[in-house]
Design brief:
The complex is a heterodimer of chains A (about 290) and B (about 260). Chain A is mainly alpha-helical and about 290 residues long. Helices cover about 80% and strands about 0% of the residues of chain A. Chain B has a single domain, classed as MetI-like (MetI-like fold, Orthogonal Bundle), CATH 1.10.3720. The longest helix of chain B has about 40 residues. Classes of the chains: A mainly alpha (about 290), B mainly alpha (about 260).
Chain lengths: ~290, ~260
């Protein structure tokens, strides 16, 4: 959301160059300085925090048991990368999240479409669905732990469940959002039900769907970390727990950094995909 | 949708739960599956009665809710402040915004091990974690809400020479309120989820999450199912409460602003 806002901000770079013909006055220099400050501003807070962290550690204000120095975290990251632990655990986590997310999204699309298209299905299924949704992933965990044990299925089921809920809800919403007028036109032209779904309902549902899928990925990633923290012997979440148990905070922080970086990267990717999808939308559907 | 149809109770929604319940009852009554894990509905009801009678339920639930409340209040208050700062000040947004966005990306539960080192396993650590869970959605939605105020409103208010305070009170706050409420509503749900997570991962003291863990560790499916039902019901009550408050506050809004516009 915040990305959208950027367009509203004045772009000082443009303002500074727009009076190129003005001589290199003091005002111009000051404006340039301000432009520079504007571009550097986002780095201010991280830089301050990092400096505090690193100076605090080297001066001994902060005990390394409480917060290991950045140097050490960096070295741990490098060790993880060179020993292959990083690749192995990341691969396992990614596999879990992708399988769970894929299964959950597909199931969510099917259920959501059924709920959105048919009033009968909705009447039978929606109340139960709404009731089950009230129970968070962590509520299901002990139940599934007893039912299927601590194996891979546990992770897949929980991650799929986490992804399923937002996809189902947004698919249902999106399908319903299909403009009634367009549907009438399609009917008038004698479209078959399938054609109506493909040509009218689906295009109208895409933006809502995309939002749901994005949210689903965020939830799936969150669920993955939770499941791996609680019940796993490999994966990124496990690395965090393992580091915590050994009081190796550098390992904990390194793993948190990786978890954050991957979440960030995939979110960015989905952002780009969503923007593409939206651009392809005919404007009549946007409104 | 027709109001009279909506008001009439739709029995079709009950078919699926009743069928599932009947199936469960049948399987356990006829002993179709030989497993200690398949408990009968009677067992669950019995456990529920025992938990309620012994006071264990009240103890666990009140401990969890107290945490949830304090974390939610602290986190939302901080989130409102941060969100308002981000929403109103261009500089704050430029300086804090990107760091905040990056921070948001890190899976919330990944912080628990660090929090446990810094604050221990007790209530302080849990409340810190819960506040964090509540802060993020409130701050993000407050900021978004302030941003989404239609520029036309602001222009009109400027033309009327509203002071900054008047602008905030009469233009921005009413326009941003729905979004802020969404944030608070999310915060309530997230912090309830986080309460469970905190009790799961920072195992100390009592709480409904601990009830679930106990059930899981003692292989008592009846206790686990009871815990799940309590968790689900509590979540449902919390969100119903939040929605009720939201409806009340927002219902007054359009009329009030129209009157002000006329006056």
């Amino acid at each position: 959301m915040v990305n959208d806002v950027r367009g509203l901000w004045p772009t000082p770079g443009l303002r500074a160059t727009s009076d190129n013909y003005a001589s290199e006055t003091a005002g111009h220099a000051r404006r340039r300085l301000r432009t520079l400050a504007w571009y550097l501003a986002p780095w201010l807070l991280p830089a301050v925090l990092y400096t505090l962290w690193s100076v605090g550690c080297s001066r001994g204000w902060i005990a390394p048991q409480i917060l290991p120095p950045p140097q050490q975290v960096y070295e741990t990251l490098r060790d993880l990368a060179t020993s292959g632990d990083l690749v192995r655990n990341t691969a396992i986590s990614l596999q879990r999240v992708l399988v769970g997310f894929g299964v959950g999204t597909l199931a969510g699309l099917a259920i959501g479409a059924a709920l959105g298209l048919s009033r009968t299905v909705e009447a039978y299924l929606l109340p139960s669905f709404n009731a089950l949704v009230q129970i968070p992933v962590l509520g299901w965990l002990p139940f599934l732990l007893l039912l299927v044990g601590v194996g891979e299925p546990l992770k897949y089921i929980l991650i799929a469940h986490a992804a399923l809920v937002p996809v189902t809800l947004s698919t249902m919403q999106g399908v319903r959002n299909a403009p009634a007028a367009l549907d009438e036109v399609a009917r008038g032209f004698g479209y078959s039900p399938w054609q109506r779904i493909l040509r009218v309902v689906l295009p109208a549902a895409v933006p809502t769907l995309a939002t749901g899928v994005r949210l689903a990925f965020t939830k799936a990633w969150l669920a993955l970390v939770v499941v791996e923290l609680v019940a796993s012997s490999e994966g990124l979440g496990y690395l965090i727990v393992y580091g915590r148990q050994l009081f190796q905070l550098d390992l904990v922080m390194a793993s948190v950094v990786i978890v954050g970086a991957i979440g960030f990267a995939i979110n960015w990717l989905l952002d780009a995909l969503e923007a593409r999808l939206r651009r392809g939308q005919p404007s009549a559907f946007r409104e | 949708m027709n109001r009279s149809i909506k008001a009439a109770f739709d029995w079709r929604g009950l078919v699926l739960p009743l069928a599932a319940f009947a199936l469960w009852w049948l399987i356990s009554a006829l002993h179709l599956v030989k497993s200690g894990l398949l408990v009968s509905p009677v067992d669950v009801a019995h456990t529920a009665w025992q938990q309620a009678k012994s006071g264990a339920l009240l103890r666990a639930l009140s401990a969890s809710l107290a945490r949830e409340a304090s974390g939610f209040l602290l986190g939302s208050a901080a989130g409102l402040l941060l969100g308002a700062a981000l929403g109103f000040s261009r500089i704050a947004r430029r300086v804090i915004g990107p760091t905040f966005d990056t921070f948001k990306q890190i899976s919330l539960f990944a912080w628990i091990p660090l929090i446990s080192v810094w604050f221990g396993l007790g209530d302080v650590a849990k409340v810190v974690f819960l506040s964090l869970a509540a802060l993020l959605p409130v701050a993000a939605h407050t900021c978004d809400g302030i941003h989404a105020v239609p520029p036309r409103y602001v222009e009109v208010a400027r033309a009327f020479r509203y002071s900054r305070l008047q602008m905030a009170r009469y233009v921005i706050l009413p326009a941003a309120l729905p979004s802020i409420f969404t944030g608070i509503y999310l915060a309530l749900i997230y912090s309830w989820l986080a309460t469970l997570g905190a009790e799961y991962l920072l195992v100390a003291g009592s709480g409904i999450g601990n009830t679930l863990i106990d059930g899981s560790e003692q292989f008592r499916m009846d206790l686990v199912l009871f815990g799940i039902i309590v968790v689900g019901l509590t979540g449902w009550v919390l969100s119903a409460l939040a929605r009720g408050v939201e409806r009340r506050v927002l219902a007054r809004r359009p009329r009030a602003s129209r009157e002000r516009a006329v006056a």
